[in-house]
Amino acid sequence: MTTTNTLIQSPNTIEYYDLSKHVHPKCKGFSGAVFDGRYVYLIPMNNGSIQGQVTRFDTDGDFKNPKCWSFFDTTTLNPGSKGFINGTFDGRYIYFAPYINGQHFGQVTRYDTKKDFTASDSWTFFNTTQMNPNSKGFISCVFDGRYVYFVPYQLDMKTCHGQVTRYDTHEDFQTESSWDFFDMTDLHPAYKGYHAALFDGRFIYFIPYISDIDPLTYNGNFIQLDTHSNFLNTNSWSCFNTADLFPKSVGFIGGTFDGQYLYFAPYHNGESRYGQVVRYNTHTSFNNPQSWDAFDTTIIHENSRGFFSAIFDGRFIYFVPHCRGENLYHGQITRYDTKGSFTSVKSWKIFDTESLDEYNKGFIAGVFDGKHIYFAPYETEANKHSGQIVRFSVKAQSIFSKSKKLQDM
Questions:
Q1: DSSP class of residue 184?
Q2: Per-residue pLDDT at 402
Q3: Considering its fold, how many domains does the chain have in total?
Q4: Does 409 map to a domain?
Q5: Range 77-88 burial, b when 16+ CB lie within 10 A, else e
Q6: What average pLDDT does the segment 101-116 reach?
Q7: Cβ neighbours of residue 393 closer than 8 Å, sequence gap 6 or more
Q8: What's the pLDDT score for residue 8?
């Protein structure tokens, strides 16, 4: 069922800006965003070719002033430094997760935020495959206060893997002893092909996407790592398969944490792009089915599906729109009010950014800077990479459409 809605817009509260037109032609095709307390960094993936041009915005400046944007191509320092998918910030350094630079690779790029953005000595590189050949093909990374964990996805285009790579930020970045490895397939052969991870203050959660390429197998095996225990001990790791609890609850991409609950963004369930958000209560047992619940956002609107991650602003959860079908990219943000019931339609609203401009769509992840939500642009059609970033003020909640009153589910 799709509800009927009346759109309420507030002027100057939602903005969009094409970086490829106003800043630099190569500023497009991003795979995520990181905030360091002042600057937003857009993570480079593919702008027509695999790229390494990091784009940065000074949040103290005007969003549509090109002087407030800068860029730096990491391939000018290292030709293999390109093709990242998302990253993380440890309080000083930004880490770019290596995915594919022509082939799947494991060379981590790191930027020192205390140094000049465009200075060569601000950037360092370390190839983790020199210690372990399977340390490559990552999708995102996460920081737990001391360690950075790189999330395993693929060894090559035909092979998913489960080998987590961990870096100790208390030790030298370019020293081999600072790095550890754990292969989750040692726990079970299906524990591979993950797409991002979250940290709740104690546990790391690895978010399942695809466990096999041929035949294509979507995965619902969430993995929990106890960071208070030995990383290399199998007893530190646990699994819960949401597909055992909710039919076709597989194929997630990213998520977010609100202080109590983890929200996992649904992308593809093996049949189609879908909208069944899964939530886990971190105050209860990971392996208890009662700790988990689900809500299908297509009840709110048929296009509320196919998300690439989610963002929390202190009250609301925003699910990042990517595509709702094969080459059907969209820009419809779905928002959940954490003060409401998770399974009530009254707690959910939508806003279609594409209603403002046809190129506001096809985002991959995003970030919150304390005032604004930023949606990182990737492509608007297959192989048509976009530089049109969208942001809105979190004070502008009136942009979200009010759903017709329905009975609680």
A1: G
A2: 57
A3: 1
A4: no
A5: bbebbbbbbbbb
A6: 99
A7: 13, 14, 371, 372
A8: 32
